[in-house]
Design brief:
Helix 1 links the parallel strand 1 and strand 2. The model has no long low-confidence stretch (mean pLDDT about 95). The protein folds into two domains: about 210 residues, FAD/NAD(P)-binding domain, CATH 3.50.50.60; about 110 residues, D-Amino Acid Oxidase, Chain A, domain 2. The protein is of the alpha/beta class. The longest helix is centred in the C-terminal third of the chain and has 30 residues. GO terms for molecular function: FAD binding; monooxygenase activity. Its cofactor is FAD. Keywords: Cytoplasm, FAD, Flavoprotein, Monooxygenase, NADP, Nucleotide-binding, Oxidoreductase. This is Flavin-dependent monooxygenase.
Length: about 375
Amino acid sequence: MTIAIVGAGLGGLALARVLHVNGIDAVVYERESSRGARGQGGMLDLHSGTGQRAMREAGLIDQFHAIARRAGQDLRLLEPDGTLLLQEDTPDDAPLERPEVDRADLRDLLLDSLPAHAVRWGHTFESADNGLLHFADGSSATYDLLVGADGAGSRVRALLTDARPAHTGQNVVELGIPDIDRTHPDLAAMVGRGNYWVLGNGQSLSAQRNGDGRVRIYLSFYNTAEDWFATSGIPFDDPAAARVRLIDLFTGWDSRFTALIAACDDMVLPRSITTLPVGLTWPSTPGVTLLGDAAHLMPPVGQGANMALLDGALLGQALAAHPDDFAAAVREYEREMFERTSAAGRQSAHVQAILASPDAGRKMLAFFQPG
């Protein structure tokens, strides 16, 4: 029987890999023209019980450890006036509980673990009916099981539920400083080896060191409207002027933080944050299921990629356990996935509420150090 996976993100590739390990062929259809067609984003922290568990099930945990950054677990939490609330530096012998890894490196690891023919690039999914996939170029392909691993804007999702992502009230601008150790050693020392987080009243600045020497900076604006970018006065077509406007929006913050914004290059990317309803389910339907953001899109607070990877691994194992009964495998997978990701979604929503609240820094400190 033919398994078709729509989307060559982390979850879809993890599914394909676990199926491959178990001697089951699957085809991944990806709309991008090639593996290098676009950037894959920044760093991920893979948790020992979820994302790393998926890598173990995929037979790739040693390769993962070879590209993971233990020091990426470092954390510095501050308030806008410069007050340091928390500093956690990772000892050299600390366990790899939540090491950081470049998303692109992790995706490459998964891609390299699959046969070359497993991923078919340049296939934009449009619809499915009667065991046929239809693509934007007019081509089609057969399937017995269709797995939607096609992210937040999933087209496969519509086969199972009318739910659509909704805006959370958070809008993010992504910036970055390349080769920070050479170009701005003072800022590099301030940010440290891992995550640097400044939380204010309705705004936050986070800086995250990447494996290639770039520091990605995310400026978040909470309790804002879906059309906030259009009304914010940020001229995204003029990076230099955009940085000036962003610095204005952080008036009153310690000058070290606005210096991070001033040092950024000309990549200025707006991102609206959306989520699916927490606890979303659907009646199990023969021949189709979802994983990752297509199934349970969450706020970007550390759970999404881990859940997607584990979704893929556990669905692969269920299919391997029931190779002649895909419907039973999907039911087994969905029962576990619904419970697990609902709990992760509730925790993510709780963290999101803290970030959007007054005195977010002190509340986040209490979250990290309860009692």
